[in-house]
Amino acid sequence: MVKTAPLPDPQFAAPDDVEWRISDTPVDYDVAVAEMERKVADIAERDAREVVWLLEHPALYTAGTSADEKDLLSPDRFPVFKTGRGGQYTYHGPGQRVGYVMLDLRKRGQDVRKYVGDLERWLIATLAEFNVTGELREGRVGVWVRRPDKGPGREDKIAAIGVRIRKWVTFHGVSLNVDPVLDHFDGIVPCGISQHGVTSLADLGITATMEDVDVAMKKTFVEVFGE
């Protein structure tokens, strides 16, 4: 079931009346894609509000437009979905907050590079709400955290980004590891990067509920996208 969630405080009212949706049970990937396709078409026709949809998926792998089959290490472990978003192989599953972002870039500057940068800033600001320093790395997609406890120079990925844009309307979006089963990432080379690991808020010793993360994501979304 999809429910519309109110923002926690009027000062965080979404810009341009953005609709927030939160799914309280895992959403099948093909169902989510079909809903995004429908919503993007409506927004493109200027018949619908922009939407940010927060959800979890059952355990699965997705292959972006740049995916290399050799990076799918365990093809029979979970269902694999080919998807039109950019990027390579990604894992989704319970304990990971997925944010599907459907915004109309025609009224937001029609700047794809800025949009992707805003998604990165959104994730970094969300992590900062939990006193986690998220960082970007040249040549590595996503958001990373330093892990000196794991060894010199160790960095782990905590959040991923994959976008698609049609008629200047965005879809797909971001994923943030709250408390997923990290071993599930072992069936792929996440985003084609094998030299580094994957982490989560729980793995960093941070106790945060999905509701805590949702509140942080709503607050920081307005800080990044609100102008």
Structure, described:
- This protein has 227 residues and is α+β, with helices and mostly antiparallel strands.
- The chain has a single domain, classed as 2-Layer Sandwich (BirA Bifunctional Protein, domain 2).
- The protein has 3 helices and 12 strands, in the order E-E-H-E-E-E-E-E-H-E-E-E-E-E-H.
- It has helices at 29-44, 112-128, 210-225; strands at residues 2-4, 19-23, 51-55, 60-63, 80-82, 89-92, 96-102, 135-137, 140-146, 155-166, 169-177, 197-198.
- The strands form 2 sheets. Strands 1, 2, 3, 7, 8, 9, 10, 11 and 12 form a 9-stranded mixed sheet that branches. It has a 3-stranded mixed sheet with strand order 5-4-6, with no helix packed on it.
- Helix 2 (112-128) crosses helix 3.
- The two termini are 31 Å apart.
List keywords for this structure.
22% helix; BirA Bifunctional Protein, domain 2; alpha+beta; disordered N terminus; globular; 9-stranded mixed β-sheet; single chain; 227 residues; 3-stranded mixed β-sheet
